[in-house]
Prior knowledge:
40% of the residues lie in helices and 15% in strands. The chain contains 6 helices and 6 strands. Strand 5 and strand 6 form a beta hairpin. The longest helix is centred in the N-terminal third of the chain and has 15 residues.
Amino acid sequence: MTAASLILVRHGRPAIDPDTPPTTWPLCPEGRAAVEALAGKIAGYRPVAVVASPEPKAKETADIIASRLGLTVGIDPGLHEHKRQHLSFGTEAAFRERIASIFASPGEAVGGIETADEAGERLARALAQHKGRPLVAVTHGTVLSLYVAKLLGLDAHDLWRNLHTPDAFVLDAQGGLVERIS
């Protein structure tokens, strides 16, 4: 088995509340159960550290994984989602259209204060600061897609459309894909 260096995790399924900002959503019961199952699969890679975005759905995902591994969770604000405060969730179809426009114009601040390119670079800088390996880093769909797609030469929007909640990408020290776990 190729040695894992980074296990990049998209948070579990949140409890969507259209009346509150997505940055405040916790996991739904099904999301917690799916993260429990994912934690068992991640355990085989023997991670030594777990970090998470400060958002509740990411922190809760990390807490479940860390509990299974006997580790504590560090919070890293650099793991947060693409900054797009000017885009509300709205309907599922409208949300997907807005996300498509972000991926279509990665150098523009579509609906937010951060470009897709800036978000991917921010995540890369944040991950580079953590030296313990294998590292589990819990983040969000858009920024994870941007980062992983760049490493693996994939289309970020296609990757985003095919993500699960949760989803995990096990990467080696050179940024190659060891395994995708969902």
